[in-house]
Amino acid sequence: MTQRRRLTTEDWIDAALAAIAEGGVPAVAVEPLAARLGATKGSFYWHFANRDALLDAALARWEARTTTEVIEEITGAADGPDVQLRALVIRVIGAAESDRVGPALLATPAHPAVAPVLARATRARLDVITTLLRRLGLPAAQARHRALLAYSAYLGHAQLAHSTPDELPTSKDARRAYLDHVLRVLTAR
Q1: What is the pLDDT of residues 97-112, one digit of tens each?
Q2: CA-based radius of gyration for the chain
Q3: Residues 124 and 68 sit within 8 Å (Cβ to Cβ)
Q4: Number of other CB atoms surrounding residue 128 within 10 Å
Q5: What is the C-alpha to C-alpha distance for residues 125 and 128, in angstroms, rounded to an integer?
Q6: Quick one: 22 exposed, middle or buried, by C-beta within 10 A (0-12, 13-18, 19+)?
Q7: How many whole angstroms separate alpha carbon 45 and alpha carbon 51?
Q8: CA-CA-CA-CA torsion sign (15, 18, 22, 28)
Q9: Which residues of 147-183 are buried (b: 16+ CB within 10 A; e: fewer)?
Q10: CB count, 10 Å around CB of 132?
Q11: pTM of this structure
């Protein structure tokens, strides 16, 4: 008889994120996740007090991976703001194309667990873009408006990537030209 590996808290969180990506926040349910993992409900309750605790942990993981860690990596680099902004745009555009959790969360923005996470992530993302644009010399109000434009473009890109990906540039050269154009628009004086 082979012994099964004991599930970890991380396994449950990964399963919850996969469920959100596939069916939205309502798909995070103990019994289906236990079945997906080949586990019992008892295993779930060993790691989490209830479904809400799992959902909170999954949302915290998504926020950390897609926002906090990205911002720390980009702003922690010794590069100038132009290089940091370029790295940020390239990184998040690529991530938007593969992140299926973000669009699922945007479909339920009023959910009591989702709303504060989306608010924090949006604020942090706008703040880092604004800061980089200010460091490039744009006045505060203009930097904030361009940050809103950049973030709106990111959300639109993410939507296109999931709904009509053929509309996006696919070749390396076309993609580079597109991203160069986006950066020129964002930083133009």
Answers
A1: 899 999 999 999 999 9
A2: 19
A3: yes
A4: 20
A5: 5
A6: exposed
A7: 9
A8: positive
A9: beebbeebeebbeebbeeeeeeeeeeeeeeeebeebb
A10: 28
A11: 0.92
